[in-house]
Design brief:
Layout: E1 4-10, E2 15-22, E3 25-31, E4 34-42, E5 49-53, E6 56-57, E7 61-62, E8 69-76, E9 94-100, E10 105-112, H1 129-137, E11 140-141, H2 153-160, E12 170-172
Parallel strand pairs: 8-12
Antiparallel strand pairs: 1-4, 2-3, 4-8, 5-6, 5-9, 7-8, 9-10, 10-11
C-alpha cells in the first residue's frame, strides 16, 4: 500500500494592526507572521492511520475520492516585534508524523522549515525555476519525524479531533498548547 503526503503553501490573510504615526504620514502595519499549509494525503485507510503536526492531530476530511484526504495547518512562522498575538511562540519546524494506530508508532513523516534551517538568508531573487525549487527543497526534510513507539495516544488523539467550529478543516497551532 503506497501513501503519499503532499504539502503546499496556502493563502492566509494578513490582519491590519492599525495606524501609527511615521515621518511624512501614517503607516499601517500588518501581522504577516501567521502562515498556512495545505495537507493532502492519498492512499490512506482512515481507520488505521492518523496524521499529526507537532504532536497535534490534523483534522483530515475526505475529498470524495477513495483514500484521499485534505486539511490545513495554521501556524506562527516567525516572531515580529509587533504582532496580533505577541505571546504565541514560533511553531517552526513543523513535524508531521503518520501514526499507525494499530502498531502505536509513526510509520513515516517529515519536517518543514519556514526558512533555510541553517539560517541562510538569500539577498537576491532566484535566477530561474531550478534555483527556486532548490531553495524550497532545502527547507523540507523527509527525515526527522518522531521516532519510536507512541504510548497512550488513542485518548489524546480522540480528544484532539474535536474540530474548531469556525475552521473545521484546519488545525490551528496557535490554539494548542
Amino acid at each position: 500500500m503506497e501513501m503519499e503526503l503532499e504539502l503546499r503553501q496556502a493563502l492566509e490573510p494578513w490582519h491590519v494592526m492599525g495606524e501609527e504615526a511615521a515621518p511624512g504620514g501614517a503607516v499601517r502595519y500588518v501581522d504577516s507572521s501567521v502562515e498556512r499549509i495545505q495537507v493532502r494525503l492519498t492512499g490512506l485507510p482512515p481507520d488505521r492511520y492518523v496524521l499529526t503536526c507537532n504532536n497535534q492531530p490534523v483534522p483530515l476530511r475526505s475529498t470524495g475520492t477513495v483514500g484521499e484526504f485534505i486539511a490545513g495547518v495554521r501556524y506562527r512562522a516567525w516572531q515580529p516585534p509587533a504582532a496580533l498575538h505577541p505571546n504565541i511562540g514560533v511553531h517552526s519546524p513543523l513535524i508531521f508524523d503518520l501514526i499507525d494506530t494499530w502498531m502505536q508508532r509513526p510509520v513515516g513523516g517529515c519536517q518543514y522549515h519556514v526558512a533555510h534551517p541553517g539560517g541562510r538568508n538569500y539577498s537576491t531573487f532566484p535566477v530561474n525555476s531550478f534555483e527556486a525549487e532548490s531553495r524550497r527543497l532545502a527547507r523540507f526534510f523527509r527525515t526527522g519525524h518522531t521516532p519510536g513507539a507512541v504510548e497512550n495516544r488513542d485518548s489524546a488523539l480522540a480528544a484532539g479531533l474535536a474540530a474548531n467550529p469556525d475552521f473545521p478543516f484546519t488545525l490551528d497551532l496557535r490554539r494548542r498548547g
